[in-house]
Amino acid sequence: MKTFNLSEATIFPDLNKKEAQDLELSRDALQLNTLKYKHFRAALKFPEQDQMHQLMLSMTNLSEDDIGELTPNDAAGISGIVFDAMKKYMELGQEIVKGMEG
């Protein structure tokens, strides 16, 4: 797991409830899950414009409501981490295709 430091302390009510924390607990960091192949496969079931969002949900364990509490800076930071993982996943796919063609 990786820790993502939030740019400003944020309350995530659903996550607090899920973790049996005080509902008003304000967090300055989130624990991020490592994206795995299964996460990418699951995201492909959604329209392309929703895939990044689905991967962000998988990575953060945040609910739909809680992810909306992220500041634009924090959402962009997490999106960047997801994008880097997606890029590696796509590069692997391209290498596999090249290997099959050659």
Structure report:
This protein is an alpha+beta fold. The protein has one domain. 59% of the residues lie in helices and 17% in strands. The protein has 5 helices and 2 strands. Strands 1-2 form a two-stranded antiparallel ribbon. Helix 2 (37-43) packs antiparallel against helix 3 (48-60) and helix 3 (48-60) crosses helix 5 (72-101). The longest helix is centred in the C-terminal third of the chain and has 30 residues, at 72-101. It starts with a strand and ends with a helix.
SSE ordering: EHEHHHH
Shape: elongated
Rounded average pLDDT: 90
* Binned strand content: 15-25%
N→C terminal distance: 37 Å
Total count of helical runs of at least 4 residues: 5
How would you write the strand order of the largest sheet?
A: 1-2
Layout of helices and strands:
Blueprint: E1 2-11, H1 13-18, E2 26-32, H2 37-43, H3 48-60, H4 64-67, H5 72-101
Helix pairs in contact: 2-3, 3-5
Task: Fill in the keyword field for this structure.
5 helices, 17% strand, 59% helix, alpha+beta, 102 residues, two-stranded antiparallel sheet
At a glance:
By secondary structure, this protein is an alpha+beta fold. It is built from five helices and two strands; from the N terminus they run βαβαααα. The longest helix is centred in the last third of the chain and has 30 residues, at 72-101.
